[in-house]
Predict the structure of Band 7 domain-containing protein.
Amino acid sequence: MWFLWFDIDRDLFRTIYDAGRTGSLGCVGWFIVILSGIFTICLFPITVWFCLKIVQEYERAVIFRLGRITDRKAKGPGIFFILPCTDSFVKVDLRTVSFDIPPQEILTKDSVTVSVDGVVYFRVNDPIASVANVSNADFATRLLAQTTLRNVLGTKNLAEVLSDREGIAHSMQSNLDDATDNWGIKVERVEIKDVKLPVQLQRAMAAEAEAAREARAKVIAAEGEMNASRALKEASLVIAESPSALQLRYLQTLNTIAAEKNSTIIFPLPMDVMSHFMRK
């Protein structure tokens, strides 16, 4: 217990000593800090509960002493001490935060209106800058993400917006990261969630896709007809070389017809078949 009390006293005196080294407090500032230190030491068993503060592993504390930041490094994680009446602190969460970009009506480079939304992942990498350089880093980053999405998509045409989502997300991340660097914010990832087109444009694109499919189908059918014609030409040349092959093909066709339909079929008999009997 004695060693614990000694460590608390030592940390408290160190805090008071650091208060004297902090910037140019002036005569009044020195007087207030010394008075606060004396008051804290005299009523230590009571004031220790006001001096002792704890921050979690994922948090940091930015301490202000008489309106000035005490050190260029945030405190934490763990236990730290502050002087009552002169010190105040702000907790900063260092965990990654995600938020949705509301759907934005954007006019693309080729004058098409689309509705695009996305998601942004960011974290605080400099607690002091996030507190001292911007009033609300989270809210400012959300507004900046919306304007950045509009600016980036305004330089793209519709085909690029629909096909190059990864490139758009990378460009947004780079622009956001550069803009929020002074705020102590690190943008880790940006994703485009959905791109919504007007109903008339969707119908036009569907009609265009259907026409393209029909055109490809006609080309394929024409190629098939051409290949079939070439095969028929080659077959006719083979049959022309052997007249008996024509008769065999004729009989094969009759066999196919008789097998498919149970009906009486009258067909002409070639004279070439009957000529042998007629001579007899």
